[in-house]
Design brief:
This protein has a domain at 1-85. The chain is built from 18 helices and no strands. It has 268 residues and is mainly α. It has helices at residues 8-11, 17-24, 31-38, 45-53, 61-69, 75-81, 87-95, 101-113, 120-129, 132-138, 144-150, 158-165, 172-180, 188-196, 202-211, 214-221, 228-243, 253-267.
């Protein structure tokens, strides 16, 4: 049995799991000592549960965050604690490698559920630094500056970009930002999604259609989301390629000039 009358500073460094659990519930525990105890990766789940219940530590944001991000904190302890964390603390939880995937997802969801009360400045920071899951959600933000910021998030994936472009509620700013992006605008699956997005500028639609192989164009034609204008143009493109043995219609001087004029109009 541990000698709980020992100085608490010694108890939190003891190698025994039983002693660590006793220290976690000790009334002498301060915030600094609790944080030192939470640095122990061998702290048992029962000790973490004791810390979560400690009356003197319930209002310590540092302790709450350290509890949620500890790799051994049980889910029934960490998940309820998320609602007490601030937005950027939740972002930190979602970005911590040791945190379980479902807890990370819950942290991202908690941020997303607060989106109506999060300021523009906070959303811009989340767009630049948030997790991939959160970045994917912010692609649909109504503020163009947030969309412009999130397309450069290093955790954003091609699958998330394509998914956002295919959403009915995708904002106009999303297609425009992706069209201008030096990375995403060159990805084949993203280009196909741009053809199906009504917010894609016509000049960009023509350029993408030029660059896609004929089989890819036929696959795009099977999409029900295509606007009538885009569908008609792609039909003409396919017919022209069939007549020209697969060569893009834009290989003709007339078509090239027409495309340059449309692109110029879009940019102007």
């Amino acid at each position: 049995m541990a000698d709980v009358l020992q100085p608490i500073e010694r108890l939190i460094h003891d190698p025994s799991p039983e002693v660590l659990c006793a220290a976690a519930g000790d009334c002498r525990l301060t915030e600094d000592l609790a944080l030192a105890l939470l640095e122990r990766r061998d702290l048992p789940a029962s000790g973490l549960e004791q810390l979560a219940k400690h009356p003197a530590l319930k209002k310590s944001r540092k302790v709450l965050l350290a509890l949620v991000t500890h790799p051994h904190t049980p889910r029934f302890v960490s998940l309820p604690l998320l609602r007490h964390l601030h937005t950027f603390e939740l972002m930190q939880v979602a970005l911590t490698p040791a945190v379980a995937a479902d807890v990370k997802a819950a942290a991202d969801e908690a941020i997303f559920n607060r989106r109506q009360t999060i300021s523009l400045g906070e959303r811009l920071t989340l767009a630049k630094r948030g997790s991939g899951r959160l970045a994917g959600a912010l692609l649909l933000d109504s503020e163009p500056r947030v969309v412009e910021a999130v397309v450069d998030n290093p955790k954003l994936t091609e699958a998330l970009v394509v998914k956002a472009l295919m959403k009915d509620r995708a904002p106009q700013a999303l297609a425009e930002a992706i069209c201008r992006h030096p990375k995403w605008s060159l990805r084949r699956e993203v280009q196909r999604a741009l053809l199906c997005n009504p917010g894609t500028p016509l000049g960009r639609v023509l350029a993408i259609a030029d660059s896609l192989p004929i089989e890819a164009l036929r696959e795009v034609m099977r999409q029900s989301r295509l606007s009538e204008n885009v569908r008609q143009y792609l039909n003409r493109e396919l017919e022209a390629r069939a007549a020209g043995k697969g060569e893009p219609q834009s290989q003709t001087r007339i078509s090239q000039a027409r495309r340059r004029a449309v692109v110029k109009a879009d940019r102007g």
